[in-house]
Every structure is written in C-alpha cells, then in structure tokens.
Amino acid sequence: MQTKGKIILTRPSAWMNRFRTYSVFIDDVHAGTIKNGSSEEFLLTPGTHSITCKIAWYSSPVFSISMEQDSVEYLLVKSGIRYYSLMLVCLFAGIIINLFYSQVMNERPLGIFILQLTLILPALLYMLYYLTVGKKNYLIIEEDKDNFFAS
What is the mean pLDDT of residues 102-115? Predict the structure, then answer.
C-alpha cells in the first residue's frame, strides 16, 4: 500500500483580507479553504504537484512541490501586496489636502496640485496593477522556514 505525504499550509493572521477565505487548488482541483490565522492539512500521493491559492479573481503563482512517501512539507500562504499601508497613507493624505484646500481657498496653488498628484497617482497605479496585470501575484505561496516543526 502506497502511503501519502502531507502538506501543512499555514495562513498567518493579517489585516488584509481578514474576513475572506483563500481557496486552495492542488493540481487544478479545489482541495479546500483556509481561513485567516489558521493551518490546514492536505494529503498527497508521492510525486510532483502544483498548488495555487485563490481569492475572488486574484490568485498566487503556481507553486510546484515534489512529495515523497510519508514526508511532511510546511508551506505558507500570504498576501503579496507589500506596501499596502504606505499606499493608503498617500491616498488619504492626498484626499485630506484636497478637502482642506477646497474649504479654505477657492483656488489651489500649482504646488499643492503637484503634491496631490505625487501622493495619489502612485497609489492609484499600485491598486490598478493588482486589479489587472498583478492579479496572479496577489497571494504568495512559499516554504515555511520559520515553522518550529520544519526540519
């Protein structure tokens, strides 16, 4: 009888997508879901397998793993957006500057307009990247090297 290997997939607790579950696909077959701050186990036959996690139309790049009999592999899935808080600060700062100058002055100086563009435009382009081209990099699957049980 052929014994199976085990994958333990961990999703650390994060503010991003806190209330949404990630769908786990192994070899393009829906294998289950994983909630924020939890771990799930998946049994796999020995051989090479592809793992992908999805949330709505966003996904992770395909992660290939080679399983052996009775082996245990520890993986980590997390958000691929790295500068989310900086993007929000820039976006809100640009909006607050706009609200302040629309209440205080009838016309904004050119320097304030350039400052707003400098704050808001990169944040909007960053969001647009993940809505279009970067939708397959929204999540990241990697080996969990910090896991206590991983050897």
Answer: 78
**What's the CA gap between 55 and 23, in Å, rounded?**
6
Residue 88, domain member (yes or no): yes
| Cα gap 140→93, rounded to integer Å | 29
pLDDT for 25-73, tens place per residue?
Answer: 999 999 999 999 999 999 999 999 999 999 999 999 999 999 988 889 9
Could you tell me which residues are beta bridge partners of residue 39? Answer: 10
Q: Are 127 and 87 contacting, i.e. CB atoms less than 8 angstroms apart?
A: yes
Alpha carbons within 13 A on the beta-carbon side of 71:
14
* Domain span including residue 11: 5-81+135-143
For the record, the structure tokens of 98 come out as: 């706009």
**Pair (55, 120) in one structural domain:** no
